[in-house]
């Protein structure tokens, strides 16, 4: 199957829905992820990438997200007392059509939904979008010092490929080593089944905010 760029359209799951990210989402996104603990372990270039005002975050976001070269999504909750709340973002980008490669990244969530069904279903939906579009390999990566993200990526069933040393500059000018994972199309049925089993544990209960 030949890979094609997926069309960015809204996608609804049981716990979340994805909406193509737009500038009008930025105030809500800042409210969700504009917290030092989100940037502490490498997101957005690390702690020096953190902006504590909406204007600063908007400037950061304009240069950070794949507005034209990829599919960035806002993530909203479905159901429950927090129905419709914007709780994070994630992106499919770096599309290499001849090699059927894509990158799932730029992911951050409101700390109040860490450890809930949100990440598992976001990965289920986004990986499904990529493989349905004909991609054969989806890369997922994190700063090597970001133990939370590395554990979350491994926890969905992605394969650890190694450490890419001195890979990307952090916001403070230091060089980050990148922990590299991937999911191949042949592995997708196993990964999908594992994610679906994880989501079944929530028994369809809507996501509720945890204490920040």
From TrEMBL:
Classification via Gene3D superfamilies: 3.40.630.30
Domain N-acetyltransferase span(s) in chain numbering: 17-158
Stretches assigned to coiled coil: none
Keywords: Transferase
Keyword Transferase found: yes
SUPFAM superfamilies reported for this sequence: Acyl-CoA N-acyltransferases (Nat) (SSF55729)
Signal sequence, renumbered to the chain: none
InterPro entries in the cross-refs: Acyl_CoA_acyltransferase (IPR016181), GNAT_dom (IPR000182)
The UniProt record lists the keyword Coiled coil: no
Domain of life: Bacteria
UniProt GO MF annotations: acyltransferase activity, transferring groups other than amino-acyl groups
Family matches, as PANTHER family: BLL6696 PROTEIN, N-ACETYLTRANSFERASE DOMAIN-CONTAINING PROTEIN
Protein name: RimJ/RimL family protein N-acetyltransferase
Species for this entry: Compostimonas suwonensis
